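Practice problem: predict the structure.
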Amino acid sequence: MRYTPFSAELFKKNRAKLYAQLPPKSIVVVSSNDIMPTNADGTMGFRQNSDLFYLSGLDQEETYLILYPDAPEPQWREIAFVRETSELIEIWEGHKYTKEEATQTSGIKNIQWTSNFESLLKTLVYSANHIYLTDNEHLRNASVVQTQNARLGINIRNTYPNHAIGRLAPILSDLRMQKEPEELQALQVACDITEKGFRRVLNFTKPGVTEYEIEAEFIHEFTRNRSEGFAYTPIIASGANACVLHYIDNALPCKDGDMLLLDVGASYANYNADMTRTIPVNGRFSPRQKQVYQAVHAVLNYATEIMQPGVFWVDYQKEVERFMEGKLIDLGLFTRADVEKQNSANPLFKKYFMHGVAHHLGLDVHDVWDKYKPFQEGMVLTCEPGIYIQEEGLGIRLENNLVIQSGTNINLMKNIPLDWEEIEDLMNQ
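Answer:
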């Protein structure tokens, strides 16, 4: 791994929190993610299943967990299964976990080879009443690909039809939303690496450079600082491209007089940063660009202040939209009289600000969440208002990553330049 490993104490702590939520005589079964194919014999890079990583820290393919806190014999209460390595695998693929290394990483003493998984599960499952399985239950999940955990669930339901099947996802979602200090430190490192990339880009950007060249500057800085790479496909959007919310072509030259929207984050130890900054390609804001930028900045400041424990996401979104509406009026995009006559089902602000202002962040960029659960201390969320004026070819979004605290939230991106004056100064050094 490129990253500094976590202490196994984090994963012991995470498992203990899970056990406290389970009914008696429950078995938890979790699998690693697949290595996804491309074409021919090609594959995508491996990304560990977030739930498995949260519970064990094991960051390798063909890995399973069986957690049975009420097992009659102590050695069967926690079992991790890792791929058996060999001299041939070492030559062709590199080092894989030894049993001793898997114990050191996870804090799980009983390490078995993956080939033993099905037989051991069969040995243990009949003394349990409940089998808890995980699957991707994220509200925005639209994937048609069947995951390893989904296949495992089908097999277990067919093999053990008389057991009560429990949903692990809601339990782990509740636990994962509030971050432990070790998780916050990993998120801070991811944000710090993102800062390094942004400062590099501030020195590099000028009229004539391409969006993909800027993308290359980011990945260079991320990789040399031990990041696994981009936390998500980066958005490097100049000019009117910034009005396309998920513009990922990153193919065009940056023109003099345009703004450049950068929605980029580094991944570190499987934890993710999610930053957006918008800068002038030529290093100087025009009066109109500055006006819109300051409006977005004001919304960002307001949204940061009101993101407090006890606030519900739905109410938070509505309040930010109300504040944004006033800023859009100030920018001359519509009038108060227009607002009074608008269709409430399709408010005017939606033309210029059409997305959510916050999402949870952690092991996943759009991390697990419950929109009906209020914000709590220790949760980490993005804060990302934006204004997109298609008729002017101008899109500006600003985004920080915040740890929820009573009073003043912790801004993990406080060191990343944001004020327009600082951006101009840095771009013109």
